[in-house]
Amino acid sequence: QVQLVESGGGLVQPGGSLKLACAASATRFRVFVRAWFRQAPGKMRELVAEARNGGSTTYANFAKGRFTMSRDNAKNTVYLQMNSLVPEDTAVYFCHAIDLRDRSEYWGQGTQVTVSS
Description:
The chain has no helices and eleven strands. The chain has about 120 residues and is an all-beta fold. Strands 2, 4, 5, 6, 9, 10 and 11 form a seven-stranded mixed β-sheet that branches. A four-stranded antiparallel β-sheet has the order 1-3-8-7, with no helix packed on it. It is globular and about 45 Å long.
């Protein structure tokens, strides 16, 4: 069973930064970590950043210019660098992956990000 483990969340002041990590328990030849989502209290889960074919990444409008998704293929770990955080970024952040063998989908357990003074 593939597991995704997120880390890096926490409490940060407005204007601050956090770097989230999502580590997959299988190699990149089996599992592709494709996206970050977030879910704020009382709201639907929404896409934050998504890897596209060809190696590019697309970002939600709220993330453009502030968030950057990157990956370490050797560790099959994907990161989300978040800068200039605002209270509206408060949410549980989840990573999402696809099993390259059978297209099964996996979600991490989520990591809480709280932006507050």
